Amino acid sequence: MWNKRGDMRIHERSPFNAESPLGALTDDITAVDAFYSRNHGPIPELPIARWRLRVDGLVATPRTFTFDEISTEFGVHAVTATLQCAGNRRAELADVRDIPGEDLWGSGAVSTAEWRGARLADVLDAVGADRTHGAHVCFEAPDVSALADPPQVYGGSIPLAKALSPEVLLAWGMNCEPLSRVHGGPVRVIVPGYVGARSVKWVTAVTVTDQPSDNYFQASAYRILPPADDAGSVAPGAGIPLSTLPITCDFLSHRDGDRVPDGLLTVTGYALAGDGRDVARVDVSLDDGRSWHQAELDQPRSRWSWRHWSLTMTAAPGPLRLTARAFDDTAATQPESAAALWNPKGYANNSWPRIHLSVG
Ligand SMILES: Nc1nc2c(c(=O)[nH]1)N[C@H]1C(S)=C(S)[C@@H](COP(=O)(O)O)O[C@H]1N2
Ligand SMILES: [Mo]
Question: Which PROSITE patterns would you find in this protein's record (predicted)?
Answer without folding.
Answer: MOLYBDOPTERIN_EUK
